Amino acid sequence: MEFQGKKKQTRLCFSFVTSLSILGYLCAATKEMHYDSRPAIVEEVHVGVILHMESREGKIVHSCITTALSDFYQMHNNYTTRVILHTRNSKAKPLHALSAALNLLDDVQVQAIIGAQTSMEANLLAELGEEAKVPVMSLSQPSPSPSPSNKYPFFVEITQDETSQIMGISALIEKFEWRDVILIYEDTKYGRDIIPSLVISLQEKNVYISHKISFATSSRSEQIIEELQKLMQLNTKVFLVHISHLFAPCLFLNAKRLGMMREGYAWIMTSSSMNFLHSMDLSLIESMQGVVGLKSRIPASRSLHNLTSRLRRKFYMEEANVEVRELSADAIWAYDATWALAEAIERARIVNSTTNQPYTELDLPDDINNTRSSRHGVLLLREILEGRFKGLSGKTRYPNGKRNSGAFEIVNVIGKGERTVGLLPCVEGNIKESHLLHSKRKLISTGDLETIIWPGGSTTVLKGSKSQLSEVKLRIGVPVKVGFKELVRVDHDLQGNRTYVTGFCIDVFKAAIGALPYKVHYEFIPFQDANGHSAGTYNDLVHQVYLKKYDAVVGDTTITSNRSLYVDFTVPYTDLGVGMIVPNEKENMWIFLKPLSADLWITSLCFFVVTGLVVWLIERPINQEFQGSPSQQIGTIFWFSFSTLVFAHREKLSNNLAKFVVIVWLFVVLILNSSYTATLASMMTVKQIQFNSKVNSIGYQIGTFTKGPIDLNFKGLKQFIHSEEEYADALSRGSKHGGASAIIDEIPYIKIFLAKYSAKYSMIKTKSTTNGFAFVFPKGSKLVHDISRQIETLREEGKLLEMEESWFQSKTTLMYEDKSNPNTLNLNSFRGLFLVTGVSSASALFLFKVFSLKVGDMIRGQQQRIRMFFLNMAFQ
């Protein structure tokens, strides 16, 4: 039995040894197979990494990049390329990042760069990458405004586009029915760049940013507390915060200390801070209780969980002070971007080995495509932009150098972390296009959000200004006018003890405020004394808004820079500028004589006669048409000369000298005729008024701003009461009889006046020297923006013009811009022409006489020779 036991043990040992041998052989074979599957030749591709390696986030992002390469080549060990990383520390300074990039490009000759964590670094590296034709994959937060990727094709943004976030913030505020918010942002390029797009998005939702405040990154606690105390005095308690996670402790710890994190306040935050909530201290998270914000959505997966676990173990062993509870969105995007870069490098090498000019297919500027030295960079860039895969953050691609838009989670800070209360779908395209696509539906409907716990532990949504405006009745002051009641008219019903306010200004206000998406109650209060007369000037009326006696002023109130110092105006709802009213000129039956002065008329007539006489003298000896009886010859002289006025002369000229005289004279006649026609046409169509500063006076309306804007250099300025009848009476009497030669006023008043007196008066000299009429509200009122938008809509739809025509009863009235001043033509302007024709006629007449004398001498000599010839013949 003992022997059998030993034998059995021997067999077991032999079996164990045999199994180990077989297992070792299999392992060796497997290892050899793996070794054989590796490529025989591996090409190393150098890639630069520029991060703030002294920061917690920089270390985690760098670990994600290195881990991504390890995971990538473990899965694709048959690839013929291997990425070699060269890491540089930017120290959170743009110049350090630039210096590191120059070193990587010149000394290491990297083919791509990953980094640029700030917008300043991104701008510098984008310029450098464009010059070197090397792709730069940026981790900086992209702004909704035109980014470097639009200007620099080699700049690739690997973080999430901001379009969805801006749309989500607007939708969130719209859902809570807040009408105004206070914007708090960090005074950096990224913080400022988001404001224009955010304002546009909020305007589409009829949300008004009542106050904006910015903090520098280096702001001290005392400065932050001082600004927050000012915000506490405002009525608006809804804060929209756009700051970095590094500045969040400075803001919220002080806000908690001041009691601004209690019930009655609401805080909305962007993803620039919420994406890093997991890395914040518990004391900061405790001070942010009740904050609602947007966080980039990263779908949960086993791969993401494994990556987080590996990095947690790595930092626990290597740097115990860095705790990795959760990976930030930036770290995950860097992981995916590294994976995309490694894949693009492999594909670029394959393309490069199979074709010589593949880069011409890429849609890049011609100067890039035609540069042979940029071949590898263009190939690599094309593969990056065309690549697409499913990474840890979901479907990943970089069309046009930007990461595709992703979804956002709506989170609520509760306890030691956050709780997801809703999901915001991704929105492709720019802000304006997105609004057009989503204008008919809300991104966040009523049932999309779970219960939110607000600051102070309340679950009740803070009531915004929308509810406040519905509950308060606005006190609106209106002017009491003597004239021009088409603008504002106040009537008192003594029997019914009621006051009726009507007019063009009132109708515009009612139409604008009635079109608002919320109800506003109001009442009109006439600005009058106990006797029913105006209680003061327009400045006094506007000042009542500043004193908070009125909530608004509706009437013919002109926008001025001085008034804008203490009140806010809507956009103007009337024409801008002032004009001048003048009497129409009386018809003159002798107006056809006015284009030419008397001396010019006389000179022209004389030259007509002289020219005809010169032509007659030259043509009479040889031309039968200029011969005949004395009366016929005199008639021919006048007929020929004056017929040239309309180029109707029919006599044929035989002498070249006469033709020369007529050609010059016809040129003079052409100039005279054209000048006369142009001047007469101007006089017939343009109403002129000439003032003598010594005897004429100009009238203007009391209490308006027409005296200052136009300097007409007149000494006699007169004031008239607010009445169209007073204007007509003053103009009819004229300045010599105690009236005025003209009246200056704002265009709306002139339109009302001309609607009644268009037959006798006209408007000239319009100048945009005033800003038109507008409604008055207190400083910071959210109604200014809303009413202004409705006024613009009324103008675009033509309703504003319809109301104006209805109240002003507009008639066709000529309104002239007195830019030209056609004066009577005088002799001085044509002295040169008359000199030319005079010299021409005199020269021709002189030459004619000279030639006539020579011809006469020749004829007489010939006759003498003939007589001598016949005499000689007779004597022979």
Automatic annotation (TrEMBL):
Xref: SUPFAM superfamilies: Periplasmic binding protein-like I, Periplasmic binding protein-like II
Regions that span the bilayer: 598-618, 660-684, 830-851
Entries under CDD domains matching the protein: GluR_Plant, PBP1_GABAb_receptor_plant
Every Ionotropic glutamate receptor C-terminal domain range: 473-810
Membrane topology type: Multi-pass membrane protein
UniProt KW keywords: Glycoprotein, Ion channel, Ion transport, Ligand-gated ion channel, Membrane, Receptor, Signal, Transmembrane, Transmembrane helix, Transport
Pfam name, any one: ANF_receptor
GO MF term list: ligand-gated monoatomic ion channel activity
GO cellular component: a single term: membrane
Subcellular location, record wording: Membrane
Record bears the keyword Ubl conjugation: no
Family, similarity comment: Belongs to the glutamate-gated ion channel (TC 1.A.10.1) family.
Job description of the protein: Glutamate-gated receptor that probably acts as non-selective cation channel.
Subunit structure of this chain's protein: May form heteromers.
Protein name: Glutamate receptor
Species lineage: Eukaryota, Viridiplantae, Streptophyta, Embryophyta, Tracheophyta
